[in-house]
Amino acid sequence: MKKAAVGFRVHSGWAAMVAVALEKSGPVLLYRERPHLVKIFSYSYRQPYHTAAKMPLEEARTFISQVRDEARGLARGALRRMQARVREAGYHLSHCGALAASGRALPNLEEILAAHPLIHTADGELFREAILQASERSGLKTERVKEKELLETARKILRKQPAALLRQTAEMGKAFGSPWSQDEKFATLAAWLALRSKSSRKRSGAT
Question: Number of structural domains, the chain?
Fold first, then answer.
């Protein structure tokens, strides 16, 4: 089977996920989804660290652990659906393109809850980590790129200007209809870059 990659852009409680393959004519969009990463799609669960900041520390720890476990399970389910759809189309999902934040490693929970900027960062990282874990447990080769560096990285590797890349990804989504926003465009680029990574070219025997 030909290889495909999944790219994602994560938000609080949900993610834009896109599967892409490479053909001679260029990248081909296979499947897209916006899975929820919380069972109850409310502020309390979508912003778990904000919610935990109002709780006693041990209660907060239990709540964060609950939301994290739930997010990981939902991420695995979303990835299994994507793998099945891609397989039906005759492709094998082999790579993951992950958009990463540019922040440093987070401190312990008590320090996070004491600093509002860290609370914002931790909310995003919890859901990004859930999808990364799902991808890695599925045996996907994960290629990470900082979101603020995505377009420049794509320009260098894909040898196209950012404006041209955004036009191309916009055209790719027309057949799938709405929603097709910057979230899906960036997820598409992340997947495309994963398929053009050194490890991917080496596995396929390309030069």
Answer: 1
Q: Phi then psi for 153, rounded to 5 degrees? A: -65, -45
Cα separation of 178 and 158, whole Å?
A: 26
Give this prediction's pTM. Answer: 0.91
Q: Which domain holds residue 98?
A: 2-204
Query: CA-to-CA distance for 70 and 67, rounded, in angstroms?
Result: 5
Check if the beta carbon of residue 142 is closer than 8 Å to that of residue 135.
yes
- Residues 69-122: pLDDT tens digits? 999 999 999 999 999 999 999 999 999 999 998 767 899 999 999 999 999 999
Sheet of 26-33: strands edge to edge?
26-33, 14-23, 2-11, 91-100, 141-146
